[in-house]
Amino acid sequence: xxxxxxxxxxxxxxxxxxxxxxxxxxxxxxxxxxxxxxxxxxxxxxxxxxxxxxxxxxxxxxxxxxxxxxxxxxxxxxxxxxxxxxxxxxxxxxxxxxxxxxxxxxxxxxxxxxxxxxxxxxxxxxxxxxxxxxxxxxxxxxxxxxxxxxxxxxxxxxxxxxxxxxxxxxxxxxxxxxxxxxxxxxxxxxxxxxxxxxxxxxxxxxxxxxxxxxxxxxxxxxxxxxxxxxxxxxxxxxxxxxxxxxxxxxxxxxxxxxxxxxxxxxxxxxxxxxxxxxxxxxxxxxxxxxxxxxxxxxxxxxxxxxxxxxxxxxxxxxxxxxxxxxxxxxxxxxxxxxxxxxxxxxxxxxxxxxxxxxxxxxxxxxxxxxxxxxxxxxxxxxxxxxxxxxxxxxxxxxxxxxxxxxxxxxxxxxxxxxxxxxxxxxxxxxxxxxxxxxxxxxxxxxxxxxxxxxxxxxxxxxxxxxxxxxxxxxxxxxxxxxxxxxxxxxxxxxxxxxxxxxxxxxxxxxxxxxxxxxxxxxxxxxxxxxxxxxxxxxxxxxxxxxxxxxxxxxxxxxxxxxxxxxxxxxxxxxxxxxxxxxxxxxxxxxxxxxxxxxxxxxxxxxxxxxxxxxxxxxxxxxxxxxxxxxxxxxxxxxxxxxxxxxxxxxxxxxxxxxxxxxxxxxxxxxxxxxxxxxxxxxxxxxxxxxxxxxxxxxxxxxxxxxxxxxxxxxxxxxxxxxxxxxxxxxxxxxxxxxxxxxxxxxxxxxxxxxxxxxxxxxxxxxxxxxxxxxxxxxxxx
Length: 781
Description:
4 domains, iron, 19 strands, DUF1588, globular, 27 helices, signal, Jelly Rolls, alpha+beta, 7-stranded antiparallel β-sheet, single chain
């Protein structure tokens, strides 16, 4: 890796300094005045007097993060469009300096239009998590369970009878073919009863198809040990497969119970087989692996089935900004759905727990509904609010079920629930608890330890808030949100269906893609949740996790290490993920994981453009303007002798293209050693792959790379990359612009991140503390 100063480094360093200071010297004043004069006479007609753009000429505003030096070169070569030689050398530098200082640079944008914490509604994920925790408020707390699999209890006889228990064990998963034999020693083969209990742990939100196959009488309860999902108690002739599709929420553990009965028959007895499979979002059907099964009696859980509209993600993170008929209808459906589960499960269970309490004037129902309302509103309610949301609704309906529906609909449609930033009337501890829960769990403050801290007013100091955040990080919900963030940062959030030319890449199919997702998830979890939690390993790790299928497809460097421990419990459905051998020349952390590389590629070729855009926008946090027009890539068959690099260079060699592609291509080319499926290669069409490239930093230094390893080392140590990661994580978790929390917040968090040894978990705690301490800005009144 070679670092050199551009001819305009002075201007670039000055621009970078502008991020922290807006002091302008007398010399700068003269240059600014000269630049303004030239800009108004030669540029404003097309770009507007403040760079805002002019309809029909140049619509896009002049905003970006290029250095003064880069702008100077661009202006010298291309502007004005009809007569570029009219503004060169010192004149171009003066114009670049003027527009950079006045409206183009990030510092100018902050100065001209300081960002603010926006009043926004819950996003779709936040609504799902909040309603799930509103249900969970009435259950015992969830914990992080280490035992994997399902707890199986085997009975000799066709029903549950304690004295007939012959064996209790943990089964890694559910996939048994007992045929006509005894399932375990001591149990007869003609008549037996088996009950499996545990929980299904979900890592990604989406639609899941659960598949129970059983040749004998069977029942399946899901989400609650009494909530029936599949009923095959009385068998239908020839029917042995039962499918149910559910929306499940990431970071949740859903309790399940399956009963399996072989009965004595006068007719021929069928062979006893049973299995539990699933089709996860974007995946293939498979026996549910043990890593997703918890051998513990988890509390009941609820997952919203109502369909929610997608959120605006144009800023790189989900924002709750759109309020329209579709959103209104979906929140109404969600409120009605929750009301029904409250009627069917929550209130009957509440009555059983409070059966000895007095019930004068429907006191139990009022107390139940008060807990619902105060949980949804993230704190106690005053007398006027209680009368509006509870008393008037009960007065209007003598039927308890109807009253519950009225209260739930009114509560879950209220801005007090849907707009969590309406917290100015809360105490500091209440406000802090609400923000910690929203930042880390996308949810409401419902955990008993958190609510106890609120009651004792122990969320006042930075230390108290940080201690609480550290505790809340160790939670399935936080782990799921971190995984979703990494999917977004590596541009995988929408990578549901990656397909390749079956002739060019035989074996790259849905099953292989499923294994790649498993591998990526396991590697991400290992890096983030290890003791070191080292950001640099996202680019520097020379290992990953593999399966037999991945080893067969990707070759020697994907073989498991002989000394490697499994990344998950031993799995009856196939070999577990295992850590690979070290491969420093061909593997650079998650950056070059085949899931990432294959997503940033075409059906049959690699795509330096996609990869270059990804590196600039995601890995380095820089801006690119949208292309002037869409274009179709040059068909590789038209130039069979050209490498992909040569073909892309030919495609983008026009001056208008080079404005952006002089940044995109040199970065994308550094990953050309990875083909369309992410396999490492040294040759393409018999020619040596040229993976050299370069990048100009925000400070104006040009860095040259001899290949992907040097690129990865740069990304691991570059301030541009580190700051991009900090800002992206902040905005993904908080869902607000980082500068709205202070113009120096990005600098401060980046420095703390660096000082911590690039510890990702510590960064997350610092982000949560920053969000929790923001002064209240919106009142419920």
